[in-house]
Amino acid sequence: MSIKNKWLNERGLRRSHCAQAVMLALGALSFSALAQETTTQRVEVTGSSIKRIEGETPLPVQIIKREDIDKLGVTTASELLQTITANVGGLTDGASITDTSSGQRGFNSANLRGLGASNTLVLLNGRRLANFATPGDNNGVDLNNIPFGAIQRVEVLKDGASAVYGTDAIAGVINFITRRDYQGADISVRYADTQHGGADKQSLTVAGGYGDLSKDRFNIFGTFDYQKLGSLNAQQRDFIAKNDIPRTLPLLLSSNTLPARVSLSSGQFNQLLAAQPNAGWDPSNRNVNFAKPTCNPPTNVYVANGPAGPNTCSYNYMQDTEIYPDSTKQNFVSRAVFQINPDHQFFTEGLVSNTKTDYVLSPATSGRIRTSEGIRFPASLQASTGITTPVDFRFRLSDAGNRANEVTSDATRLVAGFTGTFAEWDYDTAFNHSVNKVKDKDTGPGWVSFSGMINGIKNGLYNPFELSTTTAGRDFMRSIVIEGGERSSKSESNTFDGKFSRSLSKLAGGDLTFATGFEFRRESQDFGVSAAINANDITGDRSSSGKQIIATSNTRDVRGLFAEINAPFNNEWEGQLAVRQDKYYGVEGVVGNTTITTQDLTTTNPKVALSYRPSKQTLFRSSASSGFRAPSISDLFRPVVTGVTASFLRDPVSGLTDQFPVDHYANPDLKPEKSKQYNIGMVLEPNSNWNGSLDYWNIKMTDVISDIAEDVVFETPSYYNNLNIVHRFFNDPTEDVEYVELKKANRGTLKTSGLDLVVNWRSDPTSAGRFGVRLNGTYVLEYKNQSEASAPLISRLGNFSNDKAVQRWRSVTSLDWDYEAYSLTLTNIYLSGYTDQNVPGLSIDPNHDVKAYSLWDLTGFYKISKTMKISGGVINLFDTDPPFTNQSKYFQTSWDPTYGDPRGRSYYVSLQYKFM
What we know:
Helices cover 9% and strands 44% of the residues. A hairpin with a 2-residue loop joins strand 43 and strand 44 (804-805). The chain has 14 helices and 51 strands. Mean pLDDT is 88; it is low at 1-41.
């Protein structure tokens, strides 16, 4: 078997008896059901708009077929992408559970090459979807909107910045392709549960199709997918208790406790020492907590080296939070194709998706309540301490209960178009209307009025300074609950595109083919908040700077034109040349009280690829291109996003360790990100049993858009001493942090390079069945970036930095066995270790390395009959816990949700039935 036939069989690009019409707006692979009389099939291959005879292309494409997805045992698109080794630090449900600092809680994203969700283009059947609506740090498609049950295969173009797809695909393209031209019906149900409780799953998929396109001249197909995922509380996992956070990471505990932590003036502290000379107060620190040393466990503990000093208690929020959310995901996707005549088809695609996720967080904190509020100790405490003047304090609203948020993400998408052949030109044109709406609603009793709380303390209705033995505190907090806190956002994309291709002449290796196309796209983003949010009176959901969150509405038009030539010079050499021009029209927005319009941006980006096939067993390939990503609407004009720093940080000025209040700002003066990249690789097939590939990739980005990393701010004197970045109380450079102001900016260069390795082996049939081995691995050679354009390039490879760790080696290895109606697969997912976050002074071990992480899954199925199949498996076969880590980026102290899975060993069983 030739290498091109072998690779197509392995990648699911087999020849069919129907000709394939172009279905991808920007060149992603797609099959149509158009029947033609020709016997030689031409298909459109990912990375190109030109249909070609089946064969390996000059571009590296990873294709995951449905049967491979089933063997992995995953149930969501984000879980699937965690098994793609080129995906680094993508957000899953666990990682996004407390993503309050960037304002995108509920967002599940892809992140190829670790370049960010904004640089990874996600397509559904080759066309774009509207981005996740909430304006935040990431601009990308919410993977919750992908109809997982309808996925037929996934194609990952690892060669980014395609002149065909759109030059914003700097990191690459992920194309989810659904079933099509399906006749009949099938239903599948699945149940999964964890050994240690929590995080259970139930799913249902129903699919049906009617009409034979060749006979009836139409086909209508639809799939409904439903998933229910249960929550997981931190107390349900022993590994968190074993990590012993009070001992190993005492400074990553919170100093906000109940009773309150009081910051006494020197005079007040001297009064306390005089009134309680034998109470054991350490004179080196003026922060005190009157519950010391019992501290109201288990959430409040006494740790002598805690974040606020030896006279205080500390709060272990990992004893009182969820680490995996409860969610419900529903998707319906449909497709209808009508054969107008032998040369033309009309098609439509529809998508309706709803995801509801319930997040439960630890109780809110009061924030710093200063002496200017005039709050004094209750009479009993004044008598025992001698302190009668107003005090400075902060506390945790444990009496109010846990905070909860309900995040709903609704997506709709309608595509309608024509495809066919006209005057020797293959054409595909369509209108794509796509919308995503997100609502983030404060729910539960944990959200209370800040002003009501302050007034209640002043009037003696609530005492935060001493432990209470009655329900009076909880009753008071219930009386000041604020309802109606909600943020709502809408992202809409309307696109009209067309693509045309034909053969121009004959070359020694085949047809010289040409393609050209256009895209006109209008993007819009709306954001609004409820009156309760605008009043800035919700404790735990308010701006420390007092900046009002205003409603915004912005629109941008984008025009794209491209052309491509594919030239098979002879049987050995093939070339591909493409060029794309995009124009991003200016965005109008409001800054302060001034309306401004950003500049129009025009870019022309080429792409060239070349392959050389010296024999049927060997293929060499290479490509080079440039990329261009205009600042998103969110980057330019998103409203201020308020929250706290994602990580616990140590302020070198005050010595305080905390999650400091932070305001994130957009920047209308941003420049576009640009990139240059190239790939060089080879494909080998020594014999009919073996094949593999090795590809080297190299990407350089300039003018990277980002905030200053939070940890960098407090490691750099010029930042933490800058009162325009780190705002301090009373505008005093020696005072505590009031809030941190982070603004989007172009922060210099990012360089990354590495190797992608693929090895496949399939045995000949034996009396014991057929055996197979599949390996996909990514070895990163370089990952460097700058914190500022003037700063040096610093290697981040193998180090946790900002929001993720880029591991040097990631691999997925599967061992397959097939025998008659039985099949078993043993899969290993491996991620190499890395140097921990290791913020100076925050951990017991300042040079900690995170261990390598290796998970084994065992899955299998049995075909009961032609119509029924039962499958099941054990995920995380050896019940491996996430490795210990110092990082606290995602509020998940002692483990990293972008690296480890807290669910532990789980079991699932699934039954599928096809109606004949």
